[in-house]
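Response to reviewer comment R2.3. The reviewers asked that we include at least one raw input/output pair. We reproduce the pair for AFG1 family ATPase here without editing.
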Amino acid sequence: MAQSFFAHYQKLVDGKVLKPDPAQAEIVRQFDELARQLQAHQQDKPNFFQRLMGQSHADDAPDGLYIWGDVGRGKTMLMDLFFNHIEVEKKRRVHFHEFMAEVHEAIAEFRKSEKGKDNGRRDPIPHVTAPIIDEVKLLCFDEFHVNDITDAMLLSRLFDQLFAAGLVVVATSNVPPDRLYKNGLNRQLFVPFIDLLKQKTKVLQLDVDHDYRREKLEEQPIYFFGHDEASRKGLDRVWNNLTGRQAGEPEVINLQGRSFEVPQQALGVMRIGFKQLCEAPLGSRDYLRLSHHYHTFIIDEIPYLDRARSDAAKRFILLVDTLYDRGCKLAASFAAPLEELSGDDQTAFEFQRTLSRLMEMRSLEYLGAPLNDVEDAEERSA
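Raw output as returned:
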């Protein structure tokens, strides 16, 4: 790593990509210390004598970070900057809900396998954790939130093994650990996981007065009408305001085994054309996966949705439903005013709901609301 993470952050502040904020700077200092510890741990392998004495390299793994605070304060942005900056082998950044869906899927596969056919007596957790331990040393979770009893009852056993193997966790959340799974069924059985989490991570509150995301979206229009230079420049301004004028980079997202390229993304914001997003064979689970990667969608050139675009119109309805349910923010350019956008009688009824949601999604109340933990029913039942 050519420069410290704090120096990297300060460069972004000096370049006016980020606004100076003392509370954010203190979190960055904690990230900077973790980066130093991780790199030292990566380089400092136990010698022969230590191995002979039964000392495990995992025992010396640094504690991770659990960062909580209100929506829009920059938690995810700082974690993503840290993740992209640090040179650590075997790192992964994932939405917490997505990670738990993968765990449940792995458990289901194990129980269907020959190894798992022992009248339920074989513990699937070692089978599930083994590939994680092998492939990941730094695991960064976005939106750490527990509201499902099956997750709650699983977490202590799961993370006991992950932490014992030296895995380092960084997590962002809207609530402190003690409020996870609050008022949940059989919560007393979940409390040991809270204790474990506080033992293995340093809990930090990002106490910032400003909702930066809402502030940036409120400063200017987010919907533009007409596919012309004025609309393009309007969306350019939205992008620049949200990302501090970063050029952005492409990113490839795995959608159910298929590679999907997002042409431009930075700081949790994605920019993409309607054609790529709604004329490709994508469904609600794909849109949900994308909504776990990006909090704001900037969509160029949404066309007039006539009967010739019936399939694309149906996908657009699915997309808006997903973004609305998740609380993701939307900026877009449209070929026509919202109430004139649809000309397809096959989707006219459904589009009335979409129209209502599009109008609400530009309101100050919606822009200030947090993201929601939305689950795909198919995903959980798989």
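The longest strand covers residues 258-266. The CA atoms of residues 66 and 174 lie 10 Å apart. Further pairs are available on request from the corresponding author.
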